[in-house]
């Protein structure tokens, strides 16, 4: 498998059961991506927290026995994360929740959308975590 690490970045996609038992795997993949891009320990921990909270928010709304899809795209300026799950209805996420506040404090940008699907709607969260410079 060729190494696609370049200025264009790389794309990593993870598909897992939409279950809380899959959170350690999602965190491990996020940490590995950040380590490969030479992030510092604090930034890696922040990314793991972001992925954990994002997945937890989505899993709480996901249909039973469904799939959580995470896509990580590295860029020279950070990591873009796109996560989706199928949901029963098009109710948006609660932007007043503690989880939402935590995420907005840790990421550069964040948005959510609910889109119609063939059978069920899909709830998505898109985040951009900027690469931080080490303190001098």
Automatic annotation (TrEMBL):
One of its GO terms (molecular function) is kinase activity. Keywords: Kinase, Transferase. It comes from the Bacteria. This is Serine/threonine-protein kinase RsbW.
